[in-house]
Amino acid sequence: MEGGLSSVSRIREGDCAVLKRDDVFKAVLVLRRRKIIFEKQWFYLDNAIGHVYGTTFEVTSGGNLQPKQEVEGTNKETKEAGTDNRNIVDDGKSQKLTHDDIKALKDKGIKGQEIVQQLIENSTTFRDKTEFAQDKYIKKKKKKYEALITIVKPSTRILSTMYYAREPGKINHLRYDTLAQMLTLGNIRAGNKMIVMETCAGLVLGAVMERMGGYGSIIQMYPGGGPVRAATSCFGFPKVFFDNLHEFPLSKVDSLLSGTFSTEALPSEPEDNMLAEEESNGLTDEKQTSLQETEGESTTEAAMEINQTEEQETMDINAEDVEHRENKEKENKENVQEKQRKQSERRKKLLETAALLREKNADGLIVASKFHPTPLLLALLEFVAPSRPFVVYCQYKEPLLECYTKLRERGGVINLKLSETWLRNYQVLPDRSHPKLTMSGGGGYLLSGITVVLDKGKSDSSNLEALKMEEPSSKRCKVQDLHC
Q1: Rounded distance between C-alpha atoms, residue 366 and residue 196, angstroms
Q2: Are 314 and 297 in contact (CB under 8 A)?
Q3: CA distances (Å), 435 to each of 139, 424, 426, in order?
Q4: DSSP structure string for 270-339
Q5: For the stretch 281-293, what's the b/e string if a residue is b when 16 or more beta carbons lie within 10 angstroms of its beta carbon?
Q6: What is the DSSP pairing of strand 217-222 with strand 193-198?
Q7: What is the arithmetic mean of pLDDT over 274-281?
Q8: How confident is the model at residue 336 (pLDDT cuts 50, 70, 90)?
Q9: Greatest CA span in the chain, whole angstroms?
Q10: What tens digit of pLDDT does each residue of 189-202 get?
């Protein structure tokens, strides 16, 4: 067991890892002799292979990484501290080292920690600062001169924090605390049969896969030609996790519900037809060229006595062209066969996914997309079993309010809740713990509920009443007067 745990927790070539520096993250693939640029630093990950995840490295000359070694030099300087900062004037003359001196130290290969120590020693006002101000000064200089990078294992929290900080638009501004609420409200656990519809670059799908741990089945509903799983690939899941991952296009949901579903019109079929047409065009071109060759032979027989060397050269060229065409034909045929094989596999998987959806016994539904949630939710709830949770995320509350009213009119759901998540980060330090000055304005809205058996008769009557209530009051009065 110990060997298995150590192999999992150590950095290996080909792993997906996350680089961390302070509060900045970046997902990378661990490969040898691959140049990585992160926070204005370039380096190679060769020396990181074999170390434990969570190790902090220092970037040395030549872009090499070395594990950081703690130096207890700065603690001695911080013992002498002033009572307040009232007599300290920021005139730019307190530091004796110039920019050229610091650059010369860097050129000599002196580490960032030693440069910070020299900056402290050459500062005339450092000892007069308070202990808090000294800690702030050291932290600021370390961030500037120490090239420290920590390599951590990817997880839902790390990747959601990375996407929210770097590219929030790609995940519909989904914050990590909101994602945690979705996983909790959706009752995501091992052995479930989940339906996931998301346009968050695969982040929500990866979070569900991580929570389920490779047990159970997931059906991903996707718009367009295929699913987007950029964030899912950053998790570095083993291949076993993808064995029970199915995909189904949203364009086929209506036909599946109406019973007219078929796999004949797939998006990839026109490409195969085009390839077949190109192949047939190539064959007809070959016939035309063969006819031209026969005509050329008759003309060369008439002019054979004039120049025999020219005829020999043209025959060589024609033979090379024929070989080139034959090789090209073989490659086209192989490509067509490969396309047909992939298409048959895709049809088989699509039929398997359709069979899973027809059972209508999914254990939960997660929706987090850029589209309006009402039509998506009303269609996908048909595949969810009774007494199962569902969660819908939207960046704005107005679409969820409309979805809330439609569900109340339709029936078939209980415990409907529309909530907004709120997050505030705190600085926790001795004698100076307080909320941070900057915080996120909003983390989106969640609509959650539980499915129940839908009574068709009550739902129809409620729909009629809802339609009547939607009519203007003046129109309802006129209709009542006419009946009287």
Answers
A1: 5
A2: no
A3: 19, 7, 4
A4: HHHHHHHHHHHHHHHHHHHHHHHHHHHHHHHHHTTTT-HHHHHHHHHHHHHHHHHHHHHHHHHHHHHHHH
A5: eeeeeeeeeeeee
A6: parallel
A7: 38
A8: confident
A9: 112
A10: 999 999 999 999 99
Q: How many other C-beta atoms can be found within 10 angstroms of the C-beta atom of residue 165?
A: 11
Q: List the structure tokens of 220.
A: 């991903």
Whether residue 5 has pLDDT greater than 60: no
- Phi and psi for 234 in degrees, rounded to 5? -70, -20
Chain centroid offset of residue 271 CA: 28
Coil/strand/helix, residue 133: helix
Residue written as token pair 């709830």: 381
CB atoms within 10 A of CB 85: 14
pLDDT band at residue 396, thresholds of 50, 70 and 90? Answer: very high
Q: 69 phi and psi, to 5 degrees?
A: -115, 125
Residue type, 311: E
| Tokens 């109406």 sit on residue | 258
Give me the mean pLDDT over the 129-148 stretch.
78
Query: Burial level of 205, CB count in 10 A (0-12/13-18/19+)?
Result: buried
Q: 10 Å Cβ neighbour count for 235?
A: 23
* Residue 378 near residue 276 (C-beta atoms within 8 A): no
Distance CA 226, CA 206 (A): 16
The predicted structure's pLDDT at residue 180:
94
Q: What is the pLDDT of residue 395?
A: 92
Distance from C-alpha of 225 to C-alpha of 249, rounded to nearest angstrom = 8
For helices 112-121 and 99-107, give the axis angle rounded to 10 degrees: 150
Could you tell me which residues come within 8 angstroms of residue 292 by beta carbon, excluding any fewer than 6 positions away?
none
CA–CA dist 102, 123 (Å, integer): 13
Cα three-residue angle 197-201-203, rounded to 5 degrees: 75
| 383, amino acid identity | F
